[in-house]
């Protein structure tokens, strides 16, 4: 009995040890990254991230797993960049212009009317990229890919025919540039993340905003406002960033897989953004919103505000900003 028992436990011990070694081996060979992102699952940026994660999984045969936490569920948007810097999250997505107060370089994509279509936005990204990568590298971050939102328009309860009509409105902002616009026109700025946008409108905390038709659809803006002004003022971009130490810890093959998937995600994301501009604008109309082109007066007033914001940006951004704009305008 004793012998039998002893033999059994020895065999079990050997089996357990074998399994332990096998699992430990697998665990050592597999890396899991945490990826907080700000926008909801149905959003085109998030869908693009999900496809990116699947590509990475496939190209590394499951060795690099990325766990997505969308809609600010794990880390709130304003904290995502810091979380990736610290390495509490290895990878994350942010609207880069949210951080324009840290460096004007981060905010160049949100200067009104500097780049208003996809071709111009692409050119601006190319001009910004070396400066952006350097700023991020200073913070221990690697840029993986960057995708624009559709061009930005004004959502309001009635048609706004001039910038003066925004005066006194409770105006939802999402970055320093939209705060600056609100201040310029005498609106009352309130910073609200997209994740909280519907609540902010439904409770009356805000009554107008500038954002994309994509966000308009994500947040079902037709429940709160009636008019979308297709001003096409700028295309703000999201970036997906990685903690440099986490990146450096990958094998050469994994790095290659990650960078290739990122390249594909960037191309796919730009194409999706352009498609969404059309389909989401249509969806606003289908949901009984009035979609209008800006009146000449609104456009002129908005452009004047844009010109003042451009001047302020140039004054703040120094030699790097000047070089960036020269590269863009070349
Ligand atoms: N949607 C995001 C940022 C820009 C956009 O189109 C938002 O409204 O928060």
Describe the structure.
This protein has 330 residues and is α/β, with parallel strands linked by helices. The protein has one domain (15-329): D-Maltodextrin-Binding Protein, domain 2, CATH 3.40.190. It has ten helices and eleven strands. It has helices spanning 2-29, 44-59, 77-86, 118-138, 176-185, 197-202, 213-218, 244-248, 252-286, 296-329; strands spanning 31-36, 64-69, 91-95, 141-148, 153-156, 170-173, 188-191, 208-211, 227-229, 237-243, 290-292. The strands form three sheets. Strands 7-6-8-5-9-11 form a six-stranded mixed beta sheet, with helices on both faces. β6, α5 (176-185) and β7 form a beta-alpha-beta unit. The protein is globular. The relative contact order is 0.16. Mean pLDDT is 94; it is low at 1-7. Bound molecules: pyroglutamic acid (PCA).
Order of helices and strands: HEHEHEHEEEHEHEHEEHHEH
Shape: globular
Under CATH, the homologous superfamily reads: Bacterial extracellular solute-binding protein, family 7
Beta-strand fraction estimate: 15-25%
Q: How many strand units?
A: 11
Q: Which hetero ligands occur in this complex?
A: pyroglutamic acid
Mean pLDDT across every amino acid position:
94
State the CATH architecture: 3-Layer(aba) Sandwich
Biggest sheet statistics: 6 strands, mixed
Which CATH top level class fits? Alpha Beta
Question: Could you list the spans in which at least 5 consecutive residues all have pLDDT below 50?
Answer: 1-7
Q: Considering DSSP H and I runs of 4 or more, what fraction of the residues is helical?
A: 40-55%
